[in-house]
Amino acid sequence: MTIVRGIPAHEVHAVRERIAPLVELGLRRQKSFTPAAVMASLEDGRRQLFVTWPAMDCALVTEILALPAETVLHIFLVAGRLPEDWAATLANLERWAADQGCAAVELRGRRGWMRRLKGYAAPRIIMRKELCHA
């Protein structure tokens, strides 16, 4: 099973050189964010970084959105080589989100992601999965 490790904000600087190219790759099809701004948001804790460990060949950038009626984990960016056991990686992230008080996980992405995200629906090309709370 692939190990996906959360990198605390105070440790992002230590992996910056390895992760920055993945962030750039993940942002290449959009114009709203710069790699520098995303890296800064990871370092100051506004967003969270998860990487495959120890290879660091896949990075996930998330943000916890405190909305008026609920808290949602937004998967902001995924880049690099997806692990073979992607579903298990996603399930672990969903459990972490539920532990953080999130009611759902959402991501925006290409329709091609729908093949990989079982249990997700695409209203307005926003994929969302409701989380069960114990």
Brief summary:
The chain is of the alpha+beta class. Helix content is 29%, strand content 30%. Strands 1-2-3-4-5-6 form a 6-stranded mixed beta sheet.
Task: Describe the fold and architecture.
This protein has 134 residues and is α+β, with helices and mostly antiparallel strands. It has a single domain (3-130), classed as 3-Layer(aba) Sandwich (Aminopeptidase), CATH 3.40.630.30. Helix content is 29%, strand content 30%. The protein is built from 3 helices and 6 strands; from the N terminus they run βααβββαββ. It has helices at residues 12-27, 35-43, 86-99, and strands at residues 3-7, 48-53, 58-66, 71-80, 104-108, 126-130. The protein has a 6-stranded mixed β-sheet. β2 (48-53) and β3 (58-66) form a beta hairpin. α1 packs antiparallel against α2. It is globular. The mean pLDDT is 90.
